[in-house]
Structure formats: C-alpha cells, structure tokens
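About this split. The held-out portion is used to measure sequence recovery: a designer receives only the structure tokens and must propose an amino acid at every position. Recovery is the fraction of positions where the proposal matches the reference. Here is one held-out target exactly as it appears in the evaluation file.
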C-alpha cells in the first residue's frame, strides 16, 4: 500500500485525518457509544471533504491540461492505474533473489531461450491440410 499522501490532500484534510485517527484510538480504549458516534461523524466529514478536494483537483487539472501539459502529474496518473508494471524478484541460478530489472531480463531471456528451440523446416509437409482433405473447397473467388 502506498503510504504517501494523495496529490490533492491539503492541510485541512490531513488534520481531519489525524483527528479521525485520534477519535478511533479513544473509542478503542473506552468502547463507549459517544466515542463511536464521534468517530462516525469525523469519518463522514473527512469522506465528504476528500471527495470534494479530489473533484476540485481533477476539475482544475482538466482546465489546465491544454495550457500546461506537465500539469497532468505522472504521480496522479500512475495512482489511477489498476495494475502496476513490475516484475517480482526472481531467484537466480545461485539461489539469490535479484532486484535489478536488467538481471531479471537476462534470467528470463535465458530461461525462454532454453525452452523454445528452432524447428527443422525440412520435416514440414508440403501443402496445407485443407488441400489434403476431400470435400473442402479451398479456392478463392475472383
């Protein structure tokens, strides 16, 4: 999970997030209904505020994208992706895990080249299978 703050979060939202966390800690220690109600209220306020901030940020970004193309922040765009293009660590032949992408590519290349081999094309039959089966019309209309 990415622990960095969202691009559109401001001080007010961060302060409310801290307030919600403190209210939750208080509720866990006392387990009172009043504290539970306070947690729910702060949570709902934070939810409403973050939705509003996100909407405003996206609107501002859409307005400025023509005049300032770099305003469309890569961090924001990448956070919206469903999948992350990342290769997990691979065990090398010496049983060590590799973290370097170039080493991972070399290991995968070696593995794939050992699995796939070149076929001898001299053993391939002449003609297609369709021409050898009776009753199939393989001619093309002019």
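Reference sequence for scoring:
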């Amino acid at each position: 999970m990415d622990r960095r703050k969202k691009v559109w979060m401001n001080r007010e939202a961060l302060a409310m997030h801290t307030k919600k966390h403190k209210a939750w800690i208080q509720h866990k220690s006392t387990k009172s209904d009043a504290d539970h109600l306070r947690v729910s209220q702060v949570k709902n306020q934070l939810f409403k505020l973050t939705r509003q901030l996100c909407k405003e940020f996206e609107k501002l970004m859409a307005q400025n994208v023509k005049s300032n193309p770099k305003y469309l922040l890569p961090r924001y765009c990448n956070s919206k992706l469903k999948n992350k293009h990342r290769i997990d660590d691979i065990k090398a032949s010496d049983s060590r895990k590799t973290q370097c992408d170039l080493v991972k590519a070399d290991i995968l290349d070696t593995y794939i080249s050992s699995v796939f081999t070149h076929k001898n094309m001299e053993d391939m039959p002449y003609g297609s299978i369709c021409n050898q089966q009776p009753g199939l019309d393989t001619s093309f209309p002019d």
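Annotator remark: The two ends are 61 Å apart (CA to CA).
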